[in-house]
Write a structure and sequence with these properties.
This protein is an alpha+beta fold. The protein has a domain of 160 residues: Beta-Lactamase (2-Layer Sandwich), CATH 3.30.450.40. Strands 2-1-5-4-3 form a five-stranded antiparallel beta sheet, with helices on both faces. It is elongated, with a radius of gyration of 20 Å. 40% of the residues are buried. The longest helix is centred in the C-terminal third of the chain and has 27 residues. GO terms for molecular function: kinase activity; RNA binding. InterPro entries: ANTAR, CheY-like_superfamily, GAF, GAF-like_dom_sf, GAF_ANTAR, WH-like_DNA-bd_sf. Pfam families: ANTAR (PF03861), GAF_2 (PF13185).
């Protein structure tokens, strides 16, 4: 199958080890300092992702970017796909590759699988060993045998559907992978909601790009998630009686943060 091109998200280069393995002069352990750098590095990656998702010209490109970025940003993820809720029921919208596409499609064909449960119950599901999985035995055995998938994780994307992550034999998602998967799904849900709200307001694509840049700056500077960053813009707009797009343009231009009362 062919996949649509989308803006590229790359894992950022690891930050340099400023402590060089030693304790700092103020008594802070080197491992603690490294942890802070890693956390800032990850926040920057997610801010970059939100900006790219916001700049996507339509929902199809946005979803393709999300699944491709999932494979790049989740350490043990080899394939990813997204299943969307629609009036006619669930359907596989986009995937990172043919394996992710087929793994999702088989769930719909067989009437069992994690993304069906997640889309209904909105709970994250993880299977460490599909060869021994008993919740969806027929589907799990088939994707394990035919597609070489060893483990999976399915994460709700608010009410839109489910983001499914797949790993090859011998790979198992850990708590960090689950946390990153959750964050990507949460950001995607917020951006989709924001994009639809922007569509409702009749704003052009260039406005989406500017708002995405402003959200990314707010996420980095104020340690916010995407939802709170957009809410920040709305509150500033309301308090100052200035259009949201004008607030976003000023933040994107100057990187200066307006103050909330």
């Amino acid at each position: 199958m062919s996949h649509l091109a989308a803006p590229s998200i790359q894992r950022l280069s690891a930050p340099p080890d400023a402590t060089n393995g030693r304790s700092s002069a103020d008594g802070v352990d080197a491992s603690d300092a490294s942890g802070v750098l890693d956390e800032r590095h990850r926040l920057a990656e997610f801010a970059q992702l939100v900006q790219a998702l916001s700049a996507a010209p339509d929902e199809t490109v946005r979803l393709q970017l999300a699944v491709d970025s999932t494979v790049k940003l989740v350490t043990r993820c080899d394939h990813a796909g997204i299943t969307i809720n629609a009036k006619r029921g669930l359907f596989t919208r986009l995937s990172s590759d043919d394996v992710g596409q087929r793994a999702d499609e088989l769930q719909l064909e067989m009437g069992e699988g994690p993304c069906l449960d997640v889309a209904q119950d909105q709970d994250t599901l993880v299977s460490a060993d599909l060869a021994r999985e008993r919740r969806w035995p027929t589907w799990a055995a088939r994707v394990h045998r035919e597609l070489g998938v060893g483990s999976m994780m399915s994460v709700p994307v608010h009410t839109y559907g489910a983001l499914s992550l797949y790993a090859r034999h011998g790979q198992h998602f850990d708590t960090d992978d689950v946390a990153v998967g959750h964050t990507i799904a949460a950001h995607l849900a917020v951006v989709m909601t924001t994009a639809r709200e922007i569509d409702h307001l009749g704003l052009a694509l260039v406005s989406r790009i500017v708002i995405g840049r402003a959200e990314g700056i707010l996420m980095e500077r104020l340690d916010l998630d995407a939802d709170r960053a957009f809410d920040y813009l709305r509150r500033v707009s309301s308090q100052t009686n200035v259009k949201l797009i004008d607030i976003a343009e000023e933040i994107a231009r100057s990187r200066a943060l307006p103050h909330l009362a």
